[in-house]
Amino acid sequence: MSMGRICVVVCGVLLLMSTAMASVVSAQNPDYKLALSKSLLFFEGQRSGKLPPNQRLTWRKDSALLDGQEGGVDLTGGYYDAGDNVKYSFPMAFTATMLAWSIIEFGDGMGDEGVRAAEALRWNTDFLLKATAHLPNTVYAMVGNPYSDHNCWERPEDMDTPRPVYAVNTTHPGSEVAGEITAALAAASIAFRSSDTAYARLLLSRAKQDELAWGGAWLNKATNSQKYQKYVDKAIRNIKLMEEATGYYNVDTEFSWDNKHAGTYVLLSQVGHYKTEAQTFACVVLPESPTKTMKYTPGGLIYKTRSSNNQVTGAVSLLALVYAKHLTQAKGTITCGKTQFPPSKLVDLAKSQADYILGHNPLRMSYMVGYGSKFPQHIHHRASALPSLDVHPSFIACKDGTPYYMSRKPNPNELTGAIVGGPNNGTDYFDDDRKRPAQSEPTTYINAPFVGVFAYFANH
Predict the structure, then answer these.
(1) 368-410 pLDDT, tens per residue?
(2) Active site: which residues (predicted)?
(3) Cβ atoms within 10 A of the Cβ of 395, count?
(4) Does residue 93 belong to any structural domain of this protein?
(5) pTM, 2 dp
(6) Is 380 a catalytic residue?
(7) Which residue, 44, 99, 281, 400, is most buried by CB atoms nearer than 10 A?
(8) Which residues contact 13 (CB under 8 A, 6 or more apart)?
(9) Which one of the listed residues 273, 326, 378, 380 is annotated catalytic?
């Protein structure tokens, strides 16, 4: 064999090896600042309403400019929470709470991205103020008909499906959405306190008009008082009584937009309450804990739910960092049975989850769109999967979008920063298929807690 041919073979092998090694190094050494930047850019792709002049994802245009009209109110703006075109106040409010908590705890390390984080939060809270403008008797909980909306594959800019408004009130109660909005507005009032005091006062004033355990805990923090503690205690007693009656104890590992138990305890532990319950959270999620109940995939990702599992991954990771920060400042430790752990173990847990999302996983792929060399290309997201108005200015009717939905071509518009639902059902396998929304659909409440997580690791 000639030296030339030997070089071709050997050099080719070395090139493949170096490429593979570069992929591994990239996955094992994530760029958290870049991930933070992209995670905030994602929210611009979810905007509803009249878009601002500084909109960076320019393939998105104005949409849903008459929202609320069917109910005689103004409900324009806010976010589409996922890959469809309905606006839900409940998950939108949780998104706001997570963004606000990220800013409160780790905003000092966001640098220039702190401005973007505040913009993402304000786009949300401006809508929540509209949704609660008719308190004390009415909170608007949803805009759009989910059945007709989900029957279409249509750009938000083309929407011609009904846009009814749904409200909770004295005859149709819905304490959950009211309580989450309370928490969101109270948390956001803290986040804006130093930059916009008038806006912060408005948010806090509106938040005080409704109270629940999670909302009450945030009102305590926002008012720097224990004014709402009796109400919080009563609500938590009711939670515990319900758990005893049903035999379903879900405080341990639950933290998502529809269950705030662990989050409430960690938040309250910062002011000296419910320390035992907060410790329980840490003990059931730490992989090394003798009392661990949290499940993990073989590759190390938190596994809690079949659908959109990364929402739990992000929320638990943020919660772990917040609690670790508190324990470090209080010079505390985590006691699980007869074993003690330093707060840094919670930091290690959060880092393992962030790194998994950014590519340190068995598939060596990022679950954030636009991050790394390998990421989801066929996400379940109407605006991303259909051609933009710039490319296809003609109207695309409800069913005319179906061929784009069925296509195996990558989405034409990159929803940069979107974190998708994640691997399938407790495995490390991911099918990049927009027809599998449980794995391929991004949501605002997946991204929001990761904003704080990436901000923390960008500076540690």
Answers:
(1) 999 999 999 999 999 999 999 999 999 999 999 999 999 999 9
(2) 380
(3) 12
(4) yes
(5) 0.92
(6) yes
(7) 99
(8) none
(9) 380
